[in-house]
Amino acid sequence: MHLKHLEWPFFGDPHRQLATELDAWCAQYLHAGHGADIDAECRSLVKALGEAGWLKHAIAGVALGGAADTIDTRAICLLRETLARYNGLADFAFAMQGLGSGAISLAGTAAQRERYLPRVARGEALAAFALSEPEAGSDVAAMQCSAVEDGDSYVLNGEKTWISNGGIADFYVLFARTGEAPGSRGISAFIVDAGLPGFEIAERIEVIAPHPLARLKFSNCRVAKSQMIGAPGEGFKVAMRTLDVFRTSVAAASLGFARRALQEGLQQARERKMFGATLADLPLTQAKLADMACTVDSSALLVYRAAWQRDQGQNVTREAAMAKLMATEGAQRVIDAAVQLFGGRGVKSGEMVESLYREIRALRIYEGASEVQQLIIGRDLLKSV
Ligand SMILES: Cc1cc2nc3c(=O)[nH]c(=O)nc-3n(C[C@H](O)[C@H](O)[C@H](O)COP(=O)(O)OP(=O)(O)OC[C@H]3O[C@@H](n4cnc5c(N)ncnc54)[C@H](O)[C@@H]3O)c2cc1C
């Protein structure tokens, strides 16, 4: 596929090369559609992504097997966009290695980085990010899961839910209330290994686009103090720093889904015969395709503006929120239009546009629902002079 947007000035030549090589790899190795055993498929995708070297971009630290010493947001976004264009589960597998280990890359101690990041980059350890709770989703500060200091450990009690890779992850970066201050200033981040006594997978959750997902339960689960990431009470900051990178990458994945929908829609319009011509010959089809292409390009500009800006060391809270809001909502519209172009086939199980239709939905909800992004943008605008 000709990746025209790679000519944009946001990218350096290594980014262009990365995206082109990944596109070729995906075309050869990734096939759309999931098998029956999602857990096994996810593990095997992580292994394949690790062996091919793509997971090097999910961590920071060349000495630890990473592609660079700092997180390269543009590389992560190009990877997610490309993987999502081919296979939603492959994008998910890559994203969770990055999101689940991001806090360790950004704020972990040398020992934590050495213990976890090389295995993440090789695809040998699966990572997860455990922030949400049954009573604390959008309202993160309402978190109740507690971590109480006791000797050399913290003792965890409470629940986390909607945790991607829950049940198959080897470790979880988990946020719990340590109580240094009220609200978001009393939360700390920990690395919790799977299988610790007192840590159970309470429920596996089935969703419309199958991914490994679970509710976790902690009952007097002891985590060594050395597993805390950053200082006590700084967990919320650690989570937000991680989300500044990965929120933009959710937008990039949406962009990948939207590009695929446009590609499918174009092909269908050209091939479908009707009224003595093709679907593509009808002016209403051309208008629909034009709207889809405008949405795709405007999302791409917002995604790579935010990614570039973060890579320049600038604050991107507003720009990442804009990218996530516009790219996820836009992708939903583009995919819906593609389903419409396919007529009855658009809703048939197993069709690419049908799977994209299910795949995109959760991205408008997780890592901050669209309304949360609107609030972030609005408040930031009102703060500015
Ligand atoms: C497939 C999937 C994977 C996930 N993976 C993870 C994961 O790996 N780790 C993790 O920690 N969490 C994960 N989540 C959880 C996700 O982040 C939460 O679902 C999300 O934050 C919303 O929280 P909630 O579901 O409790 O909805 P609620 O907080 O109850 O929000 C419900 C709705 O209220 C609306 N809303 C929210 N805030 C406002 C507002 N200020 N004004 C007006 N309306 C508002 C929005 O429309 C929102 O969708 C995942 C969720 C899904 C669906």
Structure description:
With 385 residues, this protein is an alpha+beta fold. Helix content is 50%, strand content 15%. It has 10 helices and 10 strands. The chain has helices at 13-29, 38-51, 73-86, 88-107, 110-122, 235-271, 283-311, 317-341, 352-361, 370-383, and strands at residues 127-130, 146-150, 153-164, 171-177, 187-193, 199-204, 213-224, 228-229, 273-274, 277-278. The strands form 3 sheets. The chain has a 4-stranded mixed β-sheet with strand order 1-4-5-8. The chain has a 4-stranded antiparallel β-sheet with strand order 2-3-7-6, with no helix packed on it. The longest helix is centred in the middle third of the chain and has 37 residues, at 235-271. Bound molecules: flavin-adenine dinucleotide. Flavin-adenine dinucleotide (FAD) binds at residues 129-132, 137-138, 162-164, 207, 213, 362, 365-367, 369, 371-372, 375. Flavin-adenine dinucleotide binds at residues 129-132, 137-138, 162-164, 207, 213, 362, 365-367, 369, 371-372, 375.
